[in-house]
C-alpha cells in the first residue's frame, strides 16, 4: 500500500511552480517573439526588479529541494514494492532525460528536466550518505554555485547567451528550428545558473525527507521556524545585493563589482528559499487550499511542461504573440493566467484520471505501480 501523501509537500511544489512560471514566461517569449513594441513603464521596472530580487534563483532551489525529497520517497516505495531501487531509479532518470529533450526542443530551451536527470546521476553515489554528510555536501556547493554565477556574469560580457534577432517566429516549426540552434548555449547557461544550486538542494531535500523535516514536532523544523524572521531578513538583504548587481548589467560597461555581486545570488537564495519553505508550511497548516491548486503540486511534471505549452501559445510568435506588447507587469498577469489555466486543466483531468498525463508516462517508463 502506498504511503499517504503529505499535503505540505504538494503545496511546496505548487508554490514553487507558480514562481517558476512567473520567472520563465518572459524568457519563453524572448526566444520566440519579435522585439518588444513598447517601452517599459515605471510599474514594469518595479515588477522586474521584484522578480529578480524575490523569485529569480530562489524558487528553483525550492523545487529542486522537493525533487531530492521525492528521491527519498522513491527509495521507500521501492522497498515497499520489494523491487530493486537502482533499476527503477535508472529508468526514471532515463525517462526524465527523454522528456526533457522533447520539452527543450518543442516547448522551452531553458528546460531543467535534462539537468535534473543528469544531477540525479551525480547524486546517486551519495544516496547512502547520512543526513549530516548530505547537509555538509550541500553547504559546500554554495560557494561553487556563487562562483558559477560570477562566471555566468563574466560570460554575459562576451555576448554569450544573448539572443540574436534571428528569424521571425510565426509558426510552430519556426520555433522548433530556432530552439534546435539555441538550446546548446542555453543549456550551458542553465547548468551554470541552476546546476550547483540544484545539486545542493537535492542533497538537502533528501536529508530533510529522511529526517522527517515536515513532521509537526521535528526539532530541525522547529529550529528553522523560530529563526525564520532573521533568515528571511538575511535572504532579503543578500538577494537585494544580487538584484542590484544584475541591474548593473544594464550599463554599457558593467563594473567588476556588478560581476562579483552576481555571486550573492545563490547565497541569498539559500536563506530566502528556506524562509519561503517555512512560510508555505505554516500557511499550509492553517489554510485549506483548493484541490485545483494542490493538484499542480501532485502532478508537478505535467504542471511544469503545461505552463510552457500554454505560456508559449499566449506570448510567442506562433501563438497569440502577446509577448512584444507586454512589459514585466503584463508578463506577471499572463503568468498568473497560465497558472489558473493549468489548475483548471488538472482539476478537470482528475475527474477521470488519478495522475497527470506525464506522471503516467514517467511511471510507465519507471515501472512503478
Automatic annotation (TrEMBL):
Pfam families: DUF418. Coiled coil: none annotated. Keywords: Membrane, Transmembrane, Transmembrane helix. The chain crosses the membrane at residues 12-31, 89-106, 112-130, 137-157, 183-207, 228-245, 257-281, 301-323, 329-349. Residues 229-366 form the DUF418 domain. PANTHER family: INNER MEMBRANE PROTEIN (PTHR30590:SF2). This is DUF418 domain-containing protein. The lineage of its organism: Bacteria, Pseudomonadati, Pseudomonadota, Alphaproteobacteria, Hyphomicrobiales.
